[in-house]
Amino acid sequence: MIAFVRGQVAGVSLTSAVLEVGGVGLELMCTPGTIAGLRTGQSATLATSMIVREDSMTLYGFADEDEKSIFELVQTASGVGPKVAQAMVAVLSPDDVRRAITSDDVKTLTRVPGIGQKGAQRIILELKDRIGPPTGTTTAPAAAGAEPWREQVHQGLVGLGWSAKEAEKAVEVVAPEAGELPDVAMLLRAALRTLSKA
């Protein structure tokens, strides 16, 4: 399997990035946080996980090995496929996933799109003995009251080439749509629509 990809960023979209490796453009499905760290024309190295299905081969890209290992581990729980696993690492940091599973925190896991109450309980039951304790390598948690989706959408927009000022304005415009459980991808698309109209 392909463990990592290093190459020049040929393009980024809302859900994926294309890295040129040896004259071949490889499309990697990435989280908004990973995409936000990529700049077109610059060199990048992404840890990767390849999912082979009967009708497709999909390469998923991650900012680091820890994120990749959580993505792969959570898929060993029944009912968790690559899309839900990717949503999990998009919404929660690897240590947040470990904390939620080891402390039976169903509420945190249900913040992930595609995971309901029963799904969260099943993930905890199946992975509790295998996930391990938090490693402590994550960044400091956001200040109380801060909304993590704002930073993710902002980073995504800047990663796609908008200025920080334009990104801030777009985040403010879409803020009323966030609700209690913000869907970062949906908010990012809405923000892009407001910027394209401007």
UniProtKB/TrEMBL annotation:
Residues 72-91, 107-126 form the Helix-hairpin-helix DNA-binding motif class domain. The keyword Glycosyltransferase does not apply. Keywords: Cytoplasm, DNA damage, DNA recombination, DNA repair, DNA-binding, Hydrolase. SUPFAM superfamilies: DNA helicase RuvA subunit, C-terminal domain, Nucleic acid-binding proteins, RuvA domain 2-like. GO terms for molecular function: DNA helicase activity; hydrolase activity. The RuvA-RuvB-RuvC complex processes Holliday junction (HJ) DNA during genetic recombination and DNA repair, while the RuvA-RuvB complex plays an important role in the rescue of blocked DNA replication forks via replication fork reversal (RFR). RuvA specifically binds to HJ cruciform DNA, conferring on it an open structure. The RuvB hexamer acts as an ATP-dependent pump, pulling dsDNA into and through the RuvAB complex. HJ branch migration allows RuvC to scan DNA until it finds its consensus sequence, where it cleaves and resolves the cruciform DNA. Homotetramer. Forms an RuvA(8)-RuvB(12)-Holliday junction (HJ) complex. HJ DNA is sandwiched between 2 RuvA tetramers; dsDNA enters through RuvA and exits via RuvB. An RuvB hexamer assembles on each DNA strand where it exits the tetramer. Each RuvB hexamer is contacted by two RuvA subunits (via domain III) on 2 adjacent RuvB subunits; this complex drives branch migration. In the full resolvosome a probable DNA-RuvA(4)-RuvB(12)-RuvC(2) complex forms which resolves the HJ. This is Holliday junction branch migration complex subunit RuvA. It comes from Nocardioides abyssi.
